[in-house]
Amino acid sequence: MLVVFRPSEDAERMERLDLMAHMKQENVARVIDFLEENKSKDGEVSLTDVMHLAEVMSGSMFDFLSTVQPAVTEELTMIAREITRMKDEISNLRANDMTGHKIPDAGRELDAIVEATEDATNTIMEAAEEIMGADTSDPEAYQELVSNKMIGIFEACTFQDITGQRISKVVETLRFIDERVASFIERLRIPEDLDAVLEESEKEKRARELILHGPQMAGEGVSQDDIDAMMGGGQADIDKLFD
Amino acid sequence: MALDLQMPVLVVDDYKTMIRIIRNLLKQLGFEDIDDAADGTEALEKMKQRRYGLVISDWNMEPMTGYELLKQVRADGSLSKTPFIMVTAESKTENVIAAKKAGVNNYIVKPFNAQTLKGKIEAVFSD
């Protein structure tokens, strides 16, 4: 919970400040009286005088502190409690684990997926290209070549199992981050409209101007049939898509 | 414009595997003269050096996208009539509309099959 002063608390503080001002005047008067009484001593100050002055001063400090301390202590306690709670929340966020391990690990998994799919695709395409370009005049040799290449294609397809497991790990990491960030936002009661307005980056500007959305999820983009209708038809066919 | 299997075709894609796939599909369709470029800039340079009968281009590439390439081709008097097919994963309506307005001859959304590619090429040359 953030420290927020309510109107009633503000009024209470004003009363305390008035009291402080009053106490201050009273104590200043006491110090003046003491000095007036002792000015005839012509610069000679005894230990008793010093003790008396200290007593007057400490009295004035006591009055001041007894007025101010409860309010300040209460507020400092609340702030300390908030700081402790925020430290706990930040600790629960496990930010170091995220940036030090989870996110770099997920990046490595994705790199490995790209590499594995590329290797498999190349192996499959090479096999297909060899079959396409093979000499068919010797049926036995051709059959042997096709069989060998087909086995190569099956072997290459095993990448799917490994990439599936890697993708699961990346999804798990994303879920971990999502859960902790969501919990952090909720516990700190950060309102949605508190998000800072970020300036459009060059990359975002390029994507907007050049209409770069990337692949769409199933059901989000237009189908090839819709595109065919748009390409073959006029504005009316395009308009239909917005109905 | 008649479909001529001897005409040079330019395939533009920043993903080598996709170039290889399209190249193989085109070979299966009977095309023999197939060239490629990794983005719009390289494609435009090649198009200024050689007259291609067909351009098959991806949309999302750097530094020059397929959309920018299409607009530049249409704006260039000597290249403006070149048949241009967009083959892309960009499947939002606004992309298709923008491409059509820019003068694309046909639009194929990825993933696609050989039959779709064949059909769209035939459609371009039957217009």
TrEMBL record, chain A:
It comes from the Bacteria. This is Chemotaxis protein CheZ. SUPFAM superfamilies: Chemotaxis phosphatase CheZ. The lineage of its organism: Bacteria, Pseudomonadati, Pseudomonadota, Alphaproteobacteria, Hyphomicrobiales. Gene3D superfamilies: Helix hairpin bin.
From TrEMBL, chain B:
It comes from Roseibium hamelinense. Keywords: Phosphoprotein. GO terms for biological process: phosphorelay signal transduction system. The modification 4-aspartylphosphate is found at residue 58. This is Two-component system chemotaxis response regulator CheY. Pfam families: Response_reg (PF00072). The lineage of its organism: Bacteria, Pseudomonadati, Pseudomonadota, Alphaproteobacteria, Hyphomicrobiales. Coiled coil: none annotated. PANTHER family: TWO-COMPONENT RESPONSE REGULATOR (PTHR43228), TWO-COMPONENT RESPONSE REGULATOR ARR22 (PTHR43228:SF1). Residues 8-125 form the Response regulatory domain. It comes from the Bacteria.
